[in-house]
């Protein structure tokens, strides 16, 4: 059996990042993710890495931009209001096609909101946040183990596709402790011939840039980027199916909501309701095929979210509204109980969506 | 035939987009000459701003990155902290450095970040067509201060060198100008020192270059340079505002 | 399938989270599935603190406990808040030195331990939490006192080695309390 250690979700992200070869962290304190910065501040100086507390979220994401352009594995982490501030940098990083890892341990919003867990940045993460046509790979861990493994995966994917990987976690997964193991971590490395390293007089100068004043050139850049995104959409969707084999109803939930939903699914099964769960692990690329396949066999969906209903739009989109989709949600830092989810499942069985 | 004048190697052989009479060309050249003289082109990484110099990434032959508006010192920090062996400079205007990017400026100076900042102060937003800058002079007419900058309404211009010199952090803070030959020569010396400081690991060096914007000031290039002398320099005096190493030597 | 859901609640500073951590580490050494979820934020400083610990031989679903098998209440507001959430047949551990009230429910097993007073009397004022944990390990059918020394050794940082003995003392006081 692999050696297990007990870790907080936030610490697991930090440790996994270090194991993935990340030696540069730039951030700004905000609850509920500050453990990541604290862990980095403690560890980085001892392993020849850089931890730097920036003057703002904006500065920190632009430091990430610089370090990413210089060709190193780099990350920042924040929580919802801080991610809004980072949106500018996320757009520049996307427009310059450099890889970075950004962690959002979500809290309730909008505005200053609260500090309790939330999933209300789903739109921001999967649909944009910053300006312009761009995508980020959005990974939604549902356990402390996944906080670690998806962080490593996120670095690999970012380097592979030259884009930002975002870990979209929440306060609960960030703060909780579970046993984890790092033994299965696969670290991939990629050549970065585009990086700013100094020409050494041996090559033409590299330029990392998102400005194209000629519209036809900018269009081509966007086309090229979206070709790459297509490959991501084809190859990288990840999801988990739970009790879906004979399911007549399908709960869709990610992150902490999926943990609650699993309890509810088990309870509903005990009542004889044939219900299963699809848990998207990548929110972008969204597991379209899994949802489309489910739409062909189930009578309806129940989207369980810690927001006012954001992922439900993607469920409807990718099932082409073939089946009704109910929403079971809490927000502002509240989490639905398994009983609330169970009640939604019961209602769905009665045809109440 | 002997070559008596040529383009610095660090400067790309393409036409610059700057307006006729704009001193950006001079300042680019000074930076490139210094890079040549120090033999550091192969390890220099430049950070271009948002503003008139936005396309500086095309004009220098070293590796370049285009930063978001005001964030050049943060981006430069990220690069320098990743590649301490490289030479990293930013080239920023007054709106970029002293308005939207003031926090990044102050904090990179406070950290004594080992980078070189070239700060071109022409008291106006050039790229967007002549709006009031954080360094526009009291009474100065711009597109967004059409009745002259009213300090009671929109505050006073910021003296960046004087302000940064109050910080413990930075190594070298100086103001130069490029309105006449003598000043251009001194500007080059300051820029060279700012790069040499970085090579010697001394830390944050900022050279404020008082420049001109004939187009948006609505003046001929000649008149604009005269206005630098008559109006800009009295408010923004040339001089060394902080030089930690020199101060130590004096002691 | 055995799953024990333990909710520990009290004031910030009573070692609520540490008690939970202790139980979680014990589960780790026993190769169980575990989740440990604290309350977080400013409310922790002097306000109420609580900690959800789930020990199971199958993967843990929701880490949020809505119906605990075990409630440890270390102040009155916590007892009042959670007493009705305990599953029938569950256990409630009450620090009776701080809580005068009695549990009126008859479908749960209640243990009253004057832990805070016992801790004071024995010169380990900050370890009432561990006295209750000792009592819990001794009295819960799914838990055991065995292996506590190893957990204490793992949890107490080397700099504070003196605390090892004191924690063991607290656990033993709880174990032996009748």
Task: Tell me what you see in this structure.
The complex is a heterotrimer of chains A (353), B (251) and C (178). In chain A, 41% of the residues lie in helices and 19% in strands. With 353 residues, chain A is an alpha/beta fold. In chain A, the strands form 3 sheets. A 7-stranded mixed β-sheet of chain A has the order 3-2-4-5-7-6-13, sandwiched between helices. In chain A, strands 10-12-11-14-15 form a 5-stranded mixed β-sheet, with helices on both faces. In chain A, strands 1-8 form a two-stranded antiparallel ribbon. In chain A, helix 3 (57-69) runs parallel beside helix 4 (80-96) and helix 9 (255-270) crosses helix 12. Chain A is globular. In chain B, a hairpin with a 5-residue loop joins strand 5 (124-125) and strand 6 (131-132). The longest helix of chain C is centred in the C-terminal third of the chain and has 15 residues, at 162-176. Chain C has 178 residues and is of the alpha/beta class. Chain C has a 6-stranded mixed β-sheet with strand order 2-3-1-4-5-6, with helices on both faces. The termini of chain C are far apart. Chains in contact: A-B, A-C. At the A-B interface, helix 3, helix 4 and strand 9 of A face strand 1, strand 2, helix 3 and helix 5 of B. Strand 9 of chain A pairs parallel with strand 2 (63-66) of chain B.
Question: SSE layout and pairings?
Answer:
The complex is a heterotrimer of chains A (353), B (251) and C (178).
Chain A: E1 5-8, H1 9-19, E2 24-27, H2 34-43, E3 50-53, H3 57-69, E4 74-78, H4 80-96, E5 100-106, H5 122-127, E6 137-139, H6 144-161, E7 164-170, H7 171-175, E8 177-180, E9 207-208, H8 215-235, E10 239-242, E11 249-252, H9 255-270, E12 275-280, E13 282-284, H10 288-295, E14 300-305, H11 311-318, E15 325-329, H12 338-349
Parallel strand pairs in A: 2-3, 2-4, 4-5, 5-7, 6-7, 11-12, 11-14, 14-15
Antiparallel strand pairs in A: 1-8, 6-13, 10-12
Helix pairs in contact in A: 1-2, 1-6, 3-4, 9-12
Chain B: H1 24-38, E1 44-48, H2 56-59, E2 63-66, H3 72-82, E3 87-93, H4 94-100, H5 102-110, E4 116-121, E5 124-125, E6 131-132, H6 151-154, H7 160-164, E7 172-177, H8 181-199, E8 205-210, H9 214-217, H10 221-235, E9 239-243, H11 244-250
Parallel strand pairs in B: 1-2, 1-3, 3-4, 4-8, 7-8
Antiparallel strand pairs in B: 5-6, 7-9
Chain C: E1 3-11, H1 16-29, E2 33-38, E3 48-56, E4 70-73, H2 76-82, E5 91-95, E6 109-113, H3 115-121, H4 128-139, H5 148-155, H6 162-176
Parallel strand pairs in C: 1-4, 4-5, 5-6
Antiparallel strand pairs in C: 1-3, 2-3
């Amino acid at each position: 059996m692999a050696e297990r250690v007990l870790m907080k979700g936030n610490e697991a992200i930090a440790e996994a990042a270090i194991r993935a070869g990340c030696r540069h962290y730039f951030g700004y304190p905000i609850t509920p993710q500050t453990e990541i910065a604290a862990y980095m501040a403690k560890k980085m100086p001892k392993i020849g890495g850089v931890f730097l507390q920036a003057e703002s979220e904006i500065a920190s994401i632009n430091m990430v931009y610089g370090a990413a352009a210089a060709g190193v594995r780099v990350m920042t982490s924040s929580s919802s209001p801080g991610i809004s501030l980072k949106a500018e940098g996320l757009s520049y990083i996307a427009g310059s096609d450099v890889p970075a890892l950004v962690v959002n341990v979500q809290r309730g919003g909008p505005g200053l909101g609260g500090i309790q867990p939330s999933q209300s940045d789903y739109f921001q993460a999967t649909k944009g946040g910053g300006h312009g046509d761009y995508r980020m790979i959005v990974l939604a861990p549902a356990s402390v183990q996944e906080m670690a493994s998806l962080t490593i995966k996120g670095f690999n994917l970012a380097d592979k596709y030259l884009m930002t990987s975002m870990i979209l976690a929440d306060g609960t997964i960030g703060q909780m402790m579970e046993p984890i193991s790092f033994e299965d971590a696969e670290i991939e490395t990629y050549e970065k011939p585009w990086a700013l390293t100094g020409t050494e007089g041996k090559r033409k100068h590299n330029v990392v840039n998102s400005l194209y004043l000629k519209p036809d050139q900018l269009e081509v850049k966007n086309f090229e980027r979206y070709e790459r995104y297509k490959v991501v959409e084809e190859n990288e969707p990840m999801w988990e199916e739970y009790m879906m084999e004979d399911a007549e109803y399908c709960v869709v939930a990610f992150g902490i909501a999926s943990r609650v939903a699993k309890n509810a699914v088990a309870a509903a099964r005990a009542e004889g309701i044939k219900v299963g769960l699809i848990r998207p692990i990548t929110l972008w690329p969204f597991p379209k095929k899994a949802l489309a396949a489910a739409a062909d066999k189930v009578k309806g969906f129940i989207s369980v979210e810690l927001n006012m209903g954001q992922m439900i739009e993607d469920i409807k989109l990718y099932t082409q509204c073939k089946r009704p989709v109910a929403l079971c949600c809490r927000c502002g830092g509240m989490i639905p109980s398994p009983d609330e989810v169970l009640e939604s499942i019961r209602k769905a069985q009665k045809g109440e969506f | 035939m002997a070559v008596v004048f040529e383009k610095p190697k660090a400067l790309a052989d393409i036409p610059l987009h700057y307006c006729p009479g704009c001193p950006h060309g001079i300042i680019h050249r000074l930076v490139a000459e210094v890079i040549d003289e120090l033999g550091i082109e192969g390890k220099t990484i430049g950070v271009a701003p948002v503003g008139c110099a936005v396309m500086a990434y095309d004009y220098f032959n070293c590796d370049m990155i285009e930063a978001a508006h005001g964030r050049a010192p943060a981006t430069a920090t990220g690069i320098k902290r990743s590649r301490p062996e490289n030479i990293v400079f930013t080239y920023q205007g007054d709106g970029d450095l002293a308005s939207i990017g003031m926090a990044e400026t102050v904090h990179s100076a406070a950290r004594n970040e080992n980078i070189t900042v070239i700060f071109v102060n022409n008291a106006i937003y050039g790229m967007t067509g002549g709006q009031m800058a954080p360094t526009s002079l009291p009474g100065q007419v711009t597109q967004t201060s059409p009745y002259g900058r009213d300090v009671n309404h929109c505050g006073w211009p910021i003296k960046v060198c004087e302000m940064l010199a109050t910080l413990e952090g930075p190594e070298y803070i100086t103001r130069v100008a490029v309105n006449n030959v003598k000043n251009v020569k001194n500007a080059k010396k300051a820029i060279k020192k700012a790069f040499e400081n970085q090579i010697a690991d001394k830390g944050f060096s900022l050279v404020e270059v008082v420049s001109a914007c004939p187009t948006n000031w609505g003046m001929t290039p000649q008149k604009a340079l005269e206005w630098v002398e008559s109006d800009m320099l009295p408010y923004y005096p040339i001089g060394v505002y902080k030089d930690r190493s020199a101060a130590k030597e004096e002691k | 399938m055995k799953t024990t859901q333990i909710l520990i609640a009290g004031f910030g500073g009573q070692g609520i989270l540490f008690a939970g951590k202790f139980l979680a580490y014990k589960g780790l050494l026993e190769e169980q599935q575990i989740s440990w979820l604290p309350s977080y934020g400013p409310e922790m400083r002097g306000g109420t603190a609580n900690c959800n610990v789930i020990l199971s031989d199958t993967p843990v679903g929701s880490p949020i406990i809505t119906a605990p098998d075990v409630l440890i209440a270390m102040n009155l507001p916590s007892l009042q808040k959670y007493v009705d959430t305990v599953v029938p047949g569950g256990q409630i551990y009450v620090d009776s030195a701080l809580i005068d009230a009695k549990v009126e429910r008859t479908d749960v097993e209640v243990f009253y331990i004057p832990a805070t007073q016992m801790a004071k009397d024995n010169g380990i004022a900050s370890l009432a939490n561990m006295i209750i944990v000792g009592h819990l390990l001794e009295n819960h059918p799914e838990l055991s006192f065995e292996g506590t020394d190893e957990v204490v050794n793992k949890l107490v940082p080397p700099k504070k080695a003196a605390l090892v003995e004191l924690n063991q003392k607290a656990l033993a006081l709880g174990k032996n309390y009748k």
